[in-house]
């Protein structure tokens, strides 16, 4: 099960190589330029994606398909409940935005069977949680903050259920979920959005879709790799640190647990890393850990 989850991660985060680049153009975004309408449309962009993800998979895989994948009958039932939740999130955010609401695009997901779907579900829910945590501090209106918090905790329940009950892996990564900023989250979402499929009326979100990043066997790969003043930025829980990249993409990362994220930046100082200097990613670093491992807060520091 872990092997298939890891494989799905690699597929999911390598998919930007296959799916052509997304809907927006590069812009310099500072936190102050992001208003609540933009944040709600960003959330709605993710919810449209999740809604399509569950709706289409359930349409494709019936009870017999889940059964022959080795899942008990209740697994598909719970996924159906999750699908209802995502549809409700779309309706609530669309209602709050009214005429300003972005519409759904067309999506493509690299699952091939209920197992790879469940593995990808755990990743998508993880990214969803990280997106809401990362956006929380930018939300101005307290009413929206309550709604976003209510969605966030529900997505976290989805993630924990899929990861542990279904995929038989760890339900969490550690004491703190990882906040991920707008553009890195958008970069993940964009790789599942079919090129050119969003209605023109949507307009572009003011976020950057960074080039794809892969990490395997201690090496990163991305377009523009030189190893000159390039750093892997590692995010887990509330920790961020940077690690220099060699000319061949080699990088020495500390041990992490569960799901951590990495990007590549030209900035060495972890505090100063962000949209202005990120040049690729994110990618997921997945390190499953068993029930008997200690799982403290991460304490890694920049190299
Ligand atoms: C982006 O905007 C910030 C704040 O105005 C500025 O400090 C930074 O230099 C800009 N970056 C680029 C790449 O234009
Ligand atoms: C895909 O996106 C790229 C970049 O925005 C664009 O140049 C290209 O024409 C698009 N291709 C299709 C088939 O829409
Ligand atoms: C990193 O940047 C922060 C914010 O500017 C600064 O306070 C800190 O001293 C810098 N750290 C190093 C090691 O240069």
TrEMBL record:
<dbReference type="InterPro" id="IPR012347">
    <property type="entry name" value="Ferritin-like"/>
</dbReference>
<protein>
    <submittedName>
        <fullName>Uncharacterized protein</fullName>
    </submittedName>
</protein>
<dbReference type="Pfam" id="PF13668">
    <property type="entry name" value="Ferritin_2"/>
</dbReference>
<dbReference type="InterPro" id="IPR009078">
    <property type="entry name" value="Ferritin-like_SF"/>
</dbReference>
<feature type="signal peptide">
    <location>
        <begin position="1"/>
        <end position="20"/>
    </location>
</feature>
<dbReference type="InterPro" id="IPR052965">
    <property type="entry name" value="Pigment-catalase-like"/>
</dbReference>
<keyword id="KW-0732">Signal</keyword>
């Amino acid at each position: 099960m872990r092997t298939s989850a890891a494989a799905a991660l690699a597929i999911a985060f390598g998919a930007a190589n296959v799916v052509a680049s997304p809907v927006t153009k590069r812009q310099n975004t500072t936190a102050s330029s992001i208003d609540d309408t933009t944040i709600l449309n960003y959330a709605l962009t993710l919810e449209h994606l999740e809604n399509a993800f569950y709706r289409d998979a359930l349409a494709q895989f019936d009870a017999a398909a889940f059964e022959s994948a080795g899942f008990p009958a209740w697994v598909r039932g719970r996924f159906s409940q999750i699908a209802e939740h995502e549809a409700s999130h779309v309706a609530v955010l669309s209602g709050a935005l009214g005429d300003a609401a972005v519409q759904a695009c067309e999506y493509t997901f690299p699952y091939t069977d209920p197992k790879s779907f469940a593995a990808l579900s755990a990743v998508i829910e993880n990214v969803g949680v990280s997106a809401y945590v990362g956006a929380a501090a930018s939300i101005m209106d307290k009413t929206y903050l309550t709604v976003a918090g209510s969605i966030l905790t529900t997505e976290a329940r989805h993630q924990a259920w899929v990861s542990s009950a279904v995929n038989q892996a760890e339900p969490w990564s550690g004491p703190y979920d990882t906040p991920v900023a707008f553009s890195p989250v958008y970069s993940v979402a964009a790789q599942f959005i079919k090129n050119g499929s969003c209605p023109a009326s949507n307009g572009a979100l003011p976020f950057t879709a960074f080039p794809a990043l892969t990490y395997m066997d201690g090496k990163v790969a991305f377009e523009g790799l030189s190893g000159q003043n390039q750093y892997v930025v590692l995010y887990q829980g509330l920790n961020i640190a940077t690690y220099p990249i060699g000319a061949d993409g080699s990088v020495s990362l500390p041990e992490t647990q569960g799901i951590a994220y990495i990007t590549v930046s030209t900035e060495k100082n972890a505090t100063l890393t962000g949209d202005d200097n990120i040049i690729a990613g994110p990618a997921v670093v997945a390190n499953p850990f068993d029930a008997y491992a200690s799982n403290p807060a991460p304490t890694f520091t920049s190299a």
